[in-house]
Amino acid sequence: MAKNLLIVESPAKAATINKYLGSDFEVLASYGHVRDLLPKEGAVKPDEDFAMNYAVIERNRKHVDRIIKSARKAQAIYLATDLDREGEAIAWHVRELLGENNVLDGRDVYRVVFSEITPRAISDAVANPRLLSQDMVDAQQARRALDYLVGFNLSPLLWKKVQPGLSAGRVQTPALRLIVEREEEIARFEPKEYWTIEADLATFQQKEDEGFSAKLVKHQGERLQQFDIDNETQAHGLRDRLLAAAQGQLTVSRVQKRERRRNPAPPFITSTLQQEASRKLRFSAPRTMRLAQQLYEGVEIEGGKRGLITYMRTDSVNLAEEAVTELRELIQKRYGNDNVPPKPHQYNTKSRNAQEAHEAIRPTSAALTPADLKSFLNDDQLKLYTLIWQRTVACQMIHATMDTVTVEFDSAEGSTFRASGSTVRIPGFLQVYEESKPQGKEDKQVRLPPMAEGDVLKLRDIRADQHFTEPPPRYSEASLIKTLEEYSIGRPSTYASIISVLLDREYVLLEKRRFYPTDVGRVVARFLSGHFEQYVDYEFTARLEDELDAISRGEKPWLPVLEGFWSPFIERIKNKEETVSRSEARQTRTLGDDPKSGKPVTVRLGRYGPYAQIGGGDDEEDKPKFAGLRPGQSMETISLEEALELFKLPRKLGQTSQGEEVSTNIGRFGPYVRYGSSFVSLKEDDPYTIELPRALELVEQHRLERAQREISIFDSGIKVLKGRYGPYITDGNKNAKVPKDREPESLTEEECEKLLAEAPERRGRGKKASKKTAKKVAKKAAKKKATKKKAAKKKTTKKKKKKKKAAKKKASKKKASKKKAAKKVAA
Question: Is the Cβ–Cβ distance between 178 and 475 less than 8 Å?
Fold first, then answer.
């Protein structure tokens, strides 16, 4: 039986480490977080010093039970979760759970950390344990509390004012704001015209298809600015004069040669790995992180399972001393001594909020080349490993030496043409890896022919080219991550999840690898920027991250940070709940008036998305008309004419040969053609433009499909049909299976009736529907019961009153007859 229990986060990591530690250790996985805040209001209690109510995550309960069971038998417990704040918090939660279950008595609990999963790293970590860092745990708890307080208070306000089901997050909202503001910048952008003049040149030795270009950089002795030539007349006039004056040749006036050094890029951190994988491999951030996790946790190779890269959530560019030594040896062996710098390169972390000093992302052994691992990794794993291996090796190689040459040609009217070129003299690190550049900023290498002052060159032509300034580009995943990092929004470990949340919530769309905000995303971003400007401010978000870092370093207590955030935040929530109307929050846009009715035409955001509306009165007589926006239309850009087109549905197209009315419309599940009481979904056709012949074609196709589905039809309306999961019987209200031992064609009407009678009642569509239906039915039943009770009570009260009245009447009658009798006796 194992004496020690070692707990990690993932089962893959557990399987790898288990092979290294031997029979004295049992290695179990927590499967990520073991506890989280209760997913309901009151999980964080600001009035009780931000007390936090945790509960075991249900899907991980069985793993927690197994850890507790094994911990009872162990002499010592090693908490070996990841080495960042998140990992520290998981280790703390595991220890807390063990304490609550009375497992810790008389047992040693150690915290061990490692940045790579190799036998040496694991042995060193177990031999040198440390205590849990309460400062790191407090920082993570503060982050979790902040995220909870923002989400659980801001999201309900969005549901109430904008649309149900929306969410707001402390970090996702500033990221959304970046995308929306970029889109607004693009919409405001006005292109400006400018012209460039270029000379097409060649030496007299060069062939027809060879040559180079020189750009006009000076005119009348002055340096040309971008907008100095801004129209066609001016550009072509100057071009014609220069061409005439040159008479088919230009002379070299000056040649300037320089040597330029280009240094290698530092090794990968999380954000740069995501950016390069996006640009070079076209991997999304979540995909990159998933693959990196697999390489870190271990892959089966010759000699057993082992981790291939160091921990992938880091913002440190440091490399371990032994790793640098191994890299220098590898470079010397593979690329020669000339490519090894005299001293190892040292890199400084740029991020102002860099977390704990981890290592950069590197191979656990540089000796394991991508070629060695080709047969053990899948295509995606190999691509990512190759990228990491190349970048790491390159970062410890010598710089590249470039020869740059600039040649100038003086011309008429005090003009100068300039050509620049560069060549690589000593490739250095470029033999292994070259860092990619954002689109439009790539280095263009132009090789110029040898030239000296006084050389005469052939002038083939002078071109005047028109250009227009371009708006800033939309964010790609790589550029968004870079911007988030620059603004210190979030952390390396959160960039992938920020992007996933924005896409999942449909606040943004990713088209052609660029982010576009949706109407919902715009409305949410503007509502929060307008009413919660401080909390979506980039500087505020970065300052809060600084404070969380200070907590993790033990420089600041965590409760004052939460108190400073909470009081003004909840005040703002209460104020906006009272003062902001739904119409203002939904940012209704008025397009103009409907020419037929004279009523205003508006676009706004509704429960099911953006829609257009004519009119807006609440009276029955002035009931507004509604129409949903078509795919590709936006509240931001739709015109009055386009909006009025939406109200042309339903369109009557004509009739079928059987005399059924044919029309087209858009329903909850998309566009359709209706004939009689039947519907045909439109997949490629447009409901606004489809004509009767095409609609009848679709109707005929639909009828044919239905006929092929129908096996038998009885006079009573019962049908035997072919279904998705096999033949079945239906009467429109209830469905029944066809017995396996029967051919569907052989069933009689009586047999079908019997099978339908025995079949269970039809349920609502899916759990949600059945739950809703059950709730409705229960509500109705309760209402009925209450009404019955009320009626019964009324009846009883009436009866009692009647009885009382009758008794009173009887009593008064008796009294009267007694009086009469007494009077008689007296007489």
Answer: yes
Angstrom distance (rounded) from CA 141 to CA 138: 5
586-to-236, 459, 528, 612, 736 alpha-carbon distances in Å: 52, 62, 12, 13, 47
32 neighbors 297 (Cβ within 8 angstroms): no
Q: Residue 424 pairs with which residues in a beta bridge? A: 402
Q: Which two tokens stand for residue 329?
A: 């040896």
- Can you tell me which residue has the tokens 């004295």? 24
Residue 416 contacts residue 218 (beta carbons within 8 Å): yes
pLDDT of residue 713: 85
- 311 noted as active-site residue: yes
Evaluate if residue 576 carries a pLDDT over 70. yes
CA torsion through residues 406, 410, 411, 416, sign: positive
Give me the helices (H) in 710-765, please.
Answer: 749-758
| Three-state DSSP state, 184 | helix
Task: Decide if 307 contacts 293 (C-beta within 8 A).
Answer: no
* 768-796 pLDDT tens trace: 444 444 454 445 445 545 555 555 555 55
More confident residue, 73 or 303: 73
Secondary structure (3-state) at 373: helix
Angle between helices 134-161 and 558-579 (to 10 degrees): 0
Question: Which two three-digit tokens encode residue 503?
Answer: 């896409």
Of 20, 78, 311, 433, which is the active-site residue? 311
CB-CB contact of 132 with 7 (8 Å): no
Residue 326 to residues 250, 264, 332, 755, 776: CA-CA distances in angstroms?
Answer: 55, 18, 10, 76, 70
CA atoms within 13 A on the CB side of 110: 18
Contact 666, 660 (CB under 8 A): no
The helix (run of H) or strand (run of E) holding residue 686 is none
Question: Is 334 within 8 Å of 347 (Cβ atoms)?
Answer: no
Tell whether pTM > 0.90. no
Paired with 516 in beta bridges are 509
State how far the Cα of 355 lies from the Cα of 269, in Å rounded to an integer. 11
Structural contact between residues 672 and 679, judged by C-beta atoms closer than 8 angstroms? yes
How does residue 805 score in pLDDT terms, banded at 50, 70 and 90?
Answer: low
- The two tokens of residue 194 are 């400018």
b or e along 529-545 (b: 16 or more beta carbons within 10 Å of the residue's beta carbon)?
Answer: bebbeebbebeebbebb
- The string of DSSP letters for 396-436 reads TSPPEEEEEEEEEEEETTTEEEEEEEEEEEE-GGGGT----
Hey, is 653 helix, strand or coil? strand
When mean pLDDT is compared across 341-350, 379-388, 598-607, 740-749, the lowest value belongs to 598-607
Which pair of tokens denotes residue 674?
């209706």
Residues in CB range of 570: below 8 A, 6 or more apart: 46, 153
Q: Please name every residue paired with 426 in a beta bridge, in sequence order, or none if there are none.
A: 401
